[in-house]
Amino acid sequence: xxxxxxxxxxxxxxxxxxxxxxxxxxxxxxxxxxxxxxxxxxxxxxxxxxxxxxxxxxxxxxxxxxxxxxxxxxxxxxxxxxxxxxxxxxxxxxxxxxxxxxxxxxxxxxxxxxxxxxxxxxxxxxxxxxxxxxxxxxxxxxxxxxxxxxxxxxxxxxxxxxxxxxxxxxxxxxxxxxxxxxxxxxxxxxxxxxxxxxxxxxxxx
Length: 205
Known about the structure:
By secondary structure, this protein is an all-alpha fold. The chain has helices at residues 2-16, 26-29, 55-83, 107-110, 117-134, 165-195, and strands at 198-199, 203-204. It has a two-stranded antiparallel ribbon. A hairpin with a 3-residue loop joins strand 1 (198-199) and strand 2 (203-204). The longest helix is centred in the last third of the chain and has 31 residues, at 165-195. It is globular, with a radius of gyration of 20 Å. The chain starts with a helix and ends with a strand.
């Protein structure tokens, strides 16, 4: 087991090692100034997902990156919040089971003491509802937004239109960075949850 974990750690470290990227193709050069190509790595595409890609391909990958980053931020916050002892008040079902009576992390939906199947179904139904009818962009029926991943749909604003262009770009860059960090963070928590032990801030897994 230790050798497997060691090998996985080496592979993870290799994934962050700068890879030589050929800069001879115009398709790559076209994306080197896109939002998200930020110091210290700059334009970083070690898997070559953008080799010979057009703008539509880039926009699709950016859309997926943003969505995964947003989900991961919620997941990471959910992990550290519930493990800190904060849960919703009241009962989760008609039998009188309280929210804090169920385990944290993956065990809440996949372990022997997980929430009832009907509860998991309600969660999945709600996620599907948001995906199909709320979190929409021009690709699935909503009015085109100002940028890829703009899910305001013409009515959610929170003062966004009062910002100048430089501030908007800064905030979008911050969201990208936080989403990327959250994806690594929740993945790390999921791995450590299976390995067991304790993690700073989060506590015992």
